[in-house]
Predict the 3D structure of the following.
Amino acid sequence: MFSLIRQINLLWEPVYPYLSQQIREMYYPAAVSGAVSGCSVGLVLDVGPFAGVIFDLKEKGVGTSFAIAAFPRQMSDFFQQELKMRNEAGGISLIETDPALACIRDNTVDLLVFRGALFFPSLFHTDLAVMYRVLKAGGIAFVGGGFGKYTPSSIIEDISAESRDLNLKIGKTSVTADEIWRSVRGREVEAHMEIITEGGLWVVIRK
């Protein structure tokens, strides 16, 4: 199972620069308004077993501190190896945690990215209220999955078949926007989120 997750993370390497472009566009308005001052200020947290876009965000100067919140536990070794290979062992922290982000304090994250969050119930349960809890005022979370709106069709065509096969083997399921809204109905996070479907299915949470 976890070897398949490692494969898909490496397969998606060409996507990360384009996905990070979409993330940066949403982060910058949040960064220049409210409590966060400046486009390159704050903690960037890449969450879960499908982390990876953080490397491109750091390279492009989005954020001043960086961390991967890794789970399940078996993924920690993979990310540790990735950090060493990229000479990022000191530049990006590795935090072993769980889907409830028990090791992440409230109101500490400026930009949170959680790819694959909505589609793998056999691996973990995602509570969107948890993402809201750890965000600072003015922070933003980008939670969901997809190639993003800027990834060229040539890259999508190159990896889509293998990506689909690996995702199914890992246990990917389908989810709709209506199901996501029902899961948060009546909770505080509901009033602070939107769902976008361009380039995938993404929940954007602003605090």
